[in-house]
Structure to design on (394 residues):
């Protein structure tokens, strides 16, 4: 089959790789119909190279048709249309039964000290082949697969795999009071959905992003948008009586654009030998922290900062004096996808499309064009906000 493979820093290629096979009685094989490029994929593309091996199959936002199931699989059958959550969880362990599927004790990558295994996401999370491919093996298929209807297009369902529940969890963790104010930093795909979810749940949403196309997309959904910089921060303060918003979702994470020091650290780590690079990632502060520090500064006293953007530095400095003095609640974590899907499935199937999931994809390209698609997404050229790859498209 054809699959998108990691070959080195900023180097990916579509290669012929062996078809996945059933390995355990609980496995299923999925024929992929849509698979998206996520902002987290850019971390592999840019900075997490020390944890990658040439030929690793990428991708963790996928859906398709069940082709084959193992002997113990009863919840799905060949021919079912399904979405594949990016976290691999069993559904029955102590963590899963408490809604912490991203910490699944059955699939935890204990040798790396990490939580549940993820599709297509490096040795840190199990080095499981990902879904940017024609076919995908899904462990724990009875619990892991989300069965969906036949009538709506893939774009209505695809984001249940990752970014929609990630955004939903981010807003839930933000704990916005009824009728309160929510600021969203970063209007990439997760930020776009977090802002819309905030509006759907009744909050006044104010968002900051440096890219005009992203601001325009959010504005279409009733979000008050501001350019990045001191003027935008001041405008949000003015709009919240000088106190700051009740909650802030940081949807930026460790992206290094605009931070020369963090960018240089990312460049260095990405070029170090694997063992050395891993050690640096595990002991050093290599994150761009501007968005996080802005969030902590902007939120009102007694407010909440929710991190949806991914951070990777193990020793990143934090302004604890300010956080303590302002009595800030800080929440974060890998998304517990299956904890939220029962809430989200009715919303994506609602004919009114209340979360605007059909207004997110800006580029749908053949799987064969994955390499230029990654570059396009990273550089934000051509108004690119979200890319979906189609294995059947030529």
């Amino acid at each position: 089959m054809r699959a998108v493979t990691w070959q080195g820093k900023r180097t990916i290629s579509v290669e012929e790789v062996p078809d996945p096979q059933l390995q355990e009685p609980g496995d299923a094989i999925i024929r992929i119909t849509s698979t998206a490029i996520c902002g987290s994929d850019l971390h592999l593309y840019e900075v997490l190279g020390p944890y990658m091996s040439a030929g690793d199959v990428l991708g963790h936002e996928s859906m398709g048709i069940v082709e084959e199931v193992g002997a113990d699989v009863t919840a799905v059958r060949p021919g079912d249309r399904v979405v594949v959550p990016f976290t691999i969880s069993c559904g029955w362990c102590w963590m899963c039964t408490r809604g912490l599927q991203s910490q699944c004790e059955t699939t935890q990558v204990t040798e790396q000290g990490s939580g549940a295994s993820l599709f297509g996401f490096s040795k840190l999370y199990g080095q499981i082949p990902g879904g940017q491919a024609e076919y995908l093996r899904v462990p724990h298929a009875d619990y892991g697969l989300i069965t969906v209807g036949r009538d709506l297009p893939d774009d209505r369902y695809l984001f249940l795999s990752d970014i929609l529940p990630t955004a939903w969890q981010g807003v839930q963790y933000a704990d916005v009071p009824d009728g309160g104010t929510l600021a969203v930093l970063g209007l990439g795909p997760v930020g776009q959905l977090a802002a819309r979810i905030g509006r759907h749940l009744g909050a006044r949403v104010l968002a900051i992003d440096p890219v005009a196309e992203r601001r325009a997309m959010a504005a279409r959904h009733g979000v008050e948008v501001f350019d990045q910089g001191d003027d935008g921060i001041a405008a949000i303060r003015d709009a919240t009586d000088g106190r700051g918003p009740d909650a802030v979702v940081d949807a930026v994470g460790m992206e290094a654009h605009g931070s020369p020091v963090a960018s240089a650290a990312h460049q260095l780590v990405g070029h170090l030998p694997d063992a050395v690079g891993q050690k640096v990632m595990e002991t050093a502060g290599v994150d761009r922290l501007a968005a996080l520090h802005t969030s902590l500064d902007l939120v009102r006293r007694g407010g909440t900062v929710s991190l949806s953007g991914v951070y990777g530095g193990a020793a990143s400095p934090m302004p604890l004096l300010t956080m303590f003095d302002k009595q800030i609640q800080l929440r974060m974590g890998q998304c517990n996808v299956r904890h939220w899907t029962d809430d989200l499935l009715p919303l994506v199937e609602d004919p009114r499309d209340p979360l605007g999931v059909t207004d997110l994809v800006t580029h749908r390209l053949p799987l064969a064009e994955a390499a230029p698609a990654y570059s396009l997404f990273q550089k934000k050229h051509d108004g690119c906000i979200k890319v979906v790859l189609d294995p059947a498209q030529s």
